[in-house]
């Protein structure tokens, strides 16, 4: 009899546990919902190599084809970047804290058996925090998840910025190799002319030595550029999550873009769109909600339970009549107040720290935008100066010097100086174009959203014929 009574008590306790549910229970699909982990205005999650987002359940990976645009490189990098994926997984991990924060404490099962009276009691007890406590904790976790999303956005923009910077640097190197190669061929033609004149006695030995020195310097400059190119290729491949030796074809001239807004407007947009500032806003809200939850944690918690009593041969209470089911109600007494007060103070001071951090970040952001704005506008000024004034004049001067040199009216050293001046102007123009594009990429990252721009050359078309010869 004793064993049957104990077994029945155990079965009853198991049934009570299995049948117990709370209003906070959620299905797996609900837990995976993005409603509370995505900020307002975000409708979908960008794709990556590690998650399926298409209707068919298969992710279509972007590819890099011949003549790929900067946007193609950015899409490829964002899809494959481990850094982006790590930020995405941190956001997902933050979202998984919501069901943990909103869940009730686990119910407690009790089983008591008296060998003297041959009776057993099986019961279950569930505790309930003060109303609103779980909701505050869940909302705090949701704010933390939204902050993680903003940080994910910041990482994506940082990766896009670095891709554009690498592309512009690579475009500069490829242009410098091409320009240096063209000038190298020109110097070689000079060397042949001077050598021929020297043979017939119309040229001087110092001129021949000078052109040979210039030829050696030009070959050294081109060799340095060719050796430098694999470094930028490796940096770009690292952003693309590819092998460092993976081939990247010569980058043709990238489209020249000029910002179409004033610096004050850009700063105003950045103050409300920069993902780092938005993440700090979410962190401050998280601490506010944690302070609210900490205050409610200092209020009593209630508990309710049911006990079921078993007797040998029949189910009655000690008086022999009545219901064997007993209900238990209790509550905690939050006596040690310093513990709860410290939790509230911790959340408040953490919120003050986040607020100060946001103010500092806002100031730093404005200063960084001013610097990037200056770098962009100054580079654009230099591009226009070289394209519209200095390079055309240097080309005209070189043509005149060549004509004078053939006619014997211009010294070879003057012709060499004119050619070197044109080379430096062309290289400086390419450097300014790269600086303009890189500073614009920094501005896009600092602002947190695309900035209105205008194409400096409406007739621009990518040149797919550029080749870098070893």
Number of domains: 1
- CATH superfamily membership: Outer membrane efflux proteins (OEP)
Gyration radius (Cα, Å) is 37 Å
| CATH class designation | Mainly Alpha
Shape: elongated
Give me the CATH fold name.
Outer membrane efflux proteins (OEP)
How many E-type strands? 6
Helical/strand content category: alpha+beta
Helicity range: 55-70%
Q: Largest sheet, if any?
A: 4 strands, antiparallel
Order of helices and strands: HHHHHEEHHEHHEEHHE
Distance between the termini: 95 Å
Residue share in β-strands? 5-15%
* Annotation field: number of helices: 11
Question: Explain this structure to me?
Answer:
The chain is of the alpha+beta class and 470 residues long. It has a single domain (2-19, 70-455), classed as Outer membrane efflux proteins (OEP). The chain is built from eleven helices and six strands. β1 and β2 form a beta hairpin. The chain starts with a helix and ends in a 15-residue tail after the last strand. The model is unreliable at 1-32, 314-319 and 464-470 (pLDDT under 50).
Which terms would index this structure?
Outer membrane efflux proteins (OEP); disordered C terminus; 63% helix; single chain; alpha+beta; 470 residues; two-stranded antiparallel ribbon; four-stranded antiparallel β-sheet
Short overview:
This protein is of the alpha+beta class. It has helices spanning 2-19, 28-31, 70-80, 82-95, 97-102, 133-200, 205-240, 263-273, 275-297, 337-407, 412-447; strands at residues 108-114, 119-128, 257-259, 302-311, 325-331, 453-455.
